[in-house]
Amino acid sequence: MGNKYQEKFGFPAARIKGEVRTYMAEWIQDLLRHSPFCATATSNAAGDCDASPKGGRPGFVKIRNDRQLLLPDVAGNKLFHGYGNLETNPKVGLIFLVPGHDNIVRINGRSKVVDRGE
Which residues pair with 43 in a beta bridge? Predict the structure, then answer.
């Protein structure tokens, strides 16, 4: 059973439902290795949201295993809204893309800010 919007607008194809996983399949890891861009979405305990672009040379995101990533901090505007949000709500949404490639990867999970030494 879907939510009211799916009931109103339609349900995804069976192949799309099969793409929702609790791990990163090899093709997903491969796309991440080639991605120069990631958008991160966070919210604080009150539900206030922030979306932030992250980028670098392809491979800037490190894959620890099929369930963990290391997303480095990149010098940007130094507002650190996302870090502040993660202090009260560790949930994060990530979208990765490779320009000119048809697939987009969405990853949702829990995040932890770690220092380089960790």
Answer: 49
Q: What angle do CA 47, 89, 36 make, to 5 degrees?
A: 95
What is the Cα–Cα distance from 50 to 66, expressed in whole angstroms? 26
Q: What pLDDT, in 10s, does the model give residues 32-85?
A: 999 999 999 999 999 999 999 998 999 999 999 999 999 987 767 777 888 889
Q: Is residue 1 part of a domain?
A: no
On the 0-12 / 13-18 / 19+ scale of CB atoms within 10 A, 86 is: buried
Which pTM value belongs to this model?
0.86
Give the total number of structural domains in the chain: 1
Residues in the chain: 118
